[in-house]
Design goal:
Rossmann fold; 459 residues; Serine Threonine Protein Phosphatase 5, Tetratricopeptide repeat; 3 domains; DNA Cyclobutane Dipyrimidine Photolyase, subunit A, domain 3; single chain
Length: 459
């Protein structure tokens, strides 16, 4: 076990840290295999000859998530519970405020240490802070999501991929590996029986107006199958097809990555071993490693990652300079949500997100930039873009989403371009530019056919 992946958030008096079971508080990394945090927790429990348990705290109404996201997550966790039971490790689904629920569990079961996985998001960091403050036991944090732990990759917010990439590459040999497999745990912990998943899904008090989708199956097993399919059928032509929304050329792994149902390290290692075109492999690894971990860097070191305050100074200045520019079109949130603009390409992108829970990566950039163009301020554009992304995307409420929106609207990780109205020096995208890259009319028709086939209209 590479101890550099872990950091201790709370130390305690000598002797106190060797009593009671070790608990892994699972949050971002919802899998048993390739999970450094779970491996760290088991190694600690084995060293102490202690029992262990895995807890997951279910918080309702989490950042606007709907049954679409909750259903995907809970069906994956059901698979996790089975895999843990096979290894004699109990899984406990807690309810309520996560900081409070985990603290109460630790107190009720005389827990000796808590291990949790890393997230740069403010909410999880706040929950973790609550546990640290309330518990007189060691609390550890392990980055099981990034290949290089976020706090080791860089000590500061990076300006762009070009400043981050060399730092990451220097550390990859040290961290590029897989954790020890989770063994059958020899020290049992007697807790109450399994989770009634049907009841949880039925009684969950969340927004059900955005339905679950059927084109993608949740869970670590489905994630592994999706990766295998991508490596066999798409990786060799990824460089050519990835930016064409009319071609199913993307990996479709982002929902699995968001819920931690597959690890980025596993994806990278399998990609490196695949028989594929080197240019396509490099393009894919740039996204799944460099760009993804750059997003964590941005959110970790910039607590205002979802606001105008997070933009670089040059972007703030240029957007402020152009605040009073006239907008040819202005749309309210409801008009945008329903895809009722003058731009048929943008409408199609919005409807794709509503129907499928996933918008093509190229279209996400176009989509967010047009929201800036058609709203009264950058702040309003950020608010609406985040609301729509987090409500409909399976991978909403994610560092990649916040960073991508901030790139599109506020120039984060980008540079200044030629000045124009509304955008100032922030990069502009147009339908004309999109038409030079792919068959726009075919994309629009394809999304329309999707909507008709499933009988779903936006709210």
């Amino acid at each position: 076990m590479n101890s550099d992946r872990a950091r201790i958030l709370k130390e305690v008096t000598v002797g106190r840290d060797k009593k009671g079971p070790v608990v892994y508080w699972m949050s971002r990394d919802q899998r048993v295999g390739d999970n450094w945090a779970l491996s760290f927790a088991q190694e600690m429990a084995l060293e102490r000859s202690s029992p262990m348990a895995v807890v997951f705290s279910l918080t309702e109404d989490f950042l606007g998530a709907t049954i679409r996201q909750y259903g995907f997550m809970l069906r994956g966790l059901q698979e996790v519970e089975v895999a843990l039971a096979e290894r004699r490790i109990p899984f406990v689904l807690l309810r309520g405020d996560s900081g409070d629920a985990v603290s109460k569990f630790a107190e009720e079961h005389s827990v000796g240490a808590v291990v949790t996985d890393f997230s740069p998001m403010r909410t999880k960091r706040s929950w973790t802070g609550d546990v640290v403050e309330r518990q007189d036991i060691p609390v550890y944090e392990v980055d099981a999501s990034n290949i290089v732990p976020c706090w080791r990759a860089s000590p500061k917010q990076e300006y762009a991929a070009r400043t981050f990439r060399p730092k990451l590459r220097r550390l990859l040999p040290q961290f590029c590996g897989v954790p020890p497999e989770i063994r059958s745990h020899p020290h049992p912990l007697d807790l109450e029986g399994g989770t009634d998943w049907d009841r949880i899904l039925r009684d969950l008090k969340v927004d059900r107006s955005v339905p679950e989708v059927e084109w993608i199956k949740p869970g670590p097993r489905a994630a592994g199958m999706a990766l295998d399919r991508f490596l066999r059928e798409k990786l060799s032509v990824y460089h050519r097809d990835r930016n064409d929304p009319t071609i199913d050329g993307q990996s479709n792994l982002s929902p699995y990555l968001h819920f931690g149902q597959i690890s980025a390290a596993r994806i990278a290692l399998e990609s490196l071993g695949a028989d594929a075109d080197p240019t396509s492999r490099a393009s894919f690894l740039e996204e799944v490693v460099v760009r993804r971990e750059l997003s964590d860097n941005f959110c970790f070191y910039n607590p205002g990652y979802d606001s105008f305050a997070a933009f670089p100074d040059w972007a703030k200045k240029t957007l402020n300079d152009h605040r009073s520019d006239p907008r040819e079109y202005l749309y309210c949130q409801k008009e945008l949500e329903r895809g009722e603009t003058h731009d048929d390409l943008w409408n199609a992108a919005q409807k794709e997100m509503v129907h499928r829970g996933k918008m093509h990566g190229y279209m996400r950039m176009y989509w967010a930039k047009k929201i800036l163009e058609w709203t009264e301020s950058p702040e309003e554009a950020m608010r609406i873009a985040i609301y729509l992304n987090d409500r409909y995307e399976l991978d909403g409420r994610d560092p990649n989403g916040y960073t991508g929106i901030s790139w599109s609207i506020g120039g984060v990780h980008d540079r200044a371009w030629g000045e124009r109205e509304v955008f100032g020096k922030v990069r502009y995208m147009s339908q004309r530019g999109a038409r030079s890259k792919f068959d726009v009319d075919s994309y629009i028709e394809g999304v329309g056919s999707l909507g008709r086939s499933i009988g779903l209209d936006p709210p």
